[in-house]
């Protein structure tokens, strides 16, 4: 008989949700975490730190008030790295305490150390002091997360060249910075530091970035970046990086250009933390980026009693979806079939300004040849937008001409990641344009943009 019903490797969003779900089903659960405290990448270097840093920057810089008081306005004139870290550590301590209490009250056992498979059901855990513990379980969930991709040509030094896990512990605030990689992480950090008036250069080898976002929304976002003097270097890869001790970092690019700055953040991809798991002993393999393939509906790997969830299985690599994956995996393992997940989930990018999207974008609708119409609302059209001093921000709703149903909701601007959930609900409940036209929204709120965008689309549809 196995010692545990389930062993969970990793205590990030998917691992902790799976552990708690299994415990609530009356199962014996062990969570193995190799970090100093539970929480995983999400709590300690990823989701929570970056979003806390963003909120700290927007508060201390007075970013939200500059529409009234001018671009030079600041709540705190001299902002240093120590100011950014103070709030971060308080937030992380709180997150860890909540998680530890959650494990405690659900009788989830935790063990600190590095896990590796010694067989399909056996897990060996090596503690920091060298002690080795071996445990067995009927089911195993791999929720070990990812770490930044660190290619050899990047001279990481912890002083002027950082990866996305190290940047939150930067020793000082630079006057200029280069970000290589215009994915979600790179764009978030580039815009966060831009809000602190750090001169930013964003480098991306592809000719475009964030291609899954609606193009009209990206045009609005890109215009905002250029208006803030964020330099975009798209379509040319970096060929060399020079980081002399005590000097500025220089990037040489394929098109012959070069860019110099005080600091560099390399944020071009992440790889799975699977290299130390000895997956071969369990009969598993990974792709080139260390990710594990799973059956999408059940989260089972090629070995049926071993599950994987979270960033280690790849897209969408969101904390929100990872939590649900962990819950689904635990339910399936113990014979509880959860209802099928909703068709659409929201995607949030915590840049400055925020971007959030759910459903199909206009390019996807056109590709499927669905007759459609769009409605657009600018935040400055709302009374709340005027009160907040917003110059930018927009909402775009896409409706089917045939069924009048909402097909997609796309937002860029203040509060986008909060506002998106109204669109998500209407979309998953198969609601139509009539919801936005007939319902009353609190006044004054940014949510009024839904009514404005709905009426804008309805006016166009009426003419058709």
TrEMBL record:
Keyword Repeat: no
Gene3D superfamilies found in the cross-reference section: 3.30.390.30, FAD/NAD(P)-binding domain
GO molecular function: dihydrolipoyl dehydrogenase (NADH) activity; flavin adenine dinucleotide binding; NAD(P)+ transhydrogenase (Si-specific) activity
Localization of this protein: Cytoplasm
Amino-acid positions noted as binding FAD in the UniProt annotation, renumbered to this chain: 51, 311
EC number assigned by the record: 1.6.1.1
GO BP of this protein: 2-oxoglutarate metabolic process
Keyword Oxidoreductase: yes
Domain of life of the organism encoding this protein: Bacteria
Domain FAD/NAD(P)-binding residues, every copy: 4-326
Cofactor requirement: FAD
Residue ranges annotated for the Pyridine nucleotide-disulphide oxidoreductase dimerisation domain, each copy included: 346-451
Cofactor binding remark: Binds 1 FAD per subunit.
Binding sites annotated in the UniProt record for NAD(+): 181-188, 204, 269
Pfam families hit by this protein: Pyr_redox_2, Pyr_redox_dim
Functional note: Conversion of NADPH, generated by peripheral catabolic pathways, to NADH, which can enter the respiratory chain for energy generation.
Family recorded in the similarity comment: Belongs to the class-I pyridine nucleotide-disulfide oxidoreductase family.
Protein name: Soluble pyridine nucleotide transhydrogenase
Organism: Lichenibacterium ramalinae
Lineage: Bacteria, Pseudomonadati, Pseudomonadota, Alphaproteobacteria, Hyphomicrobiales
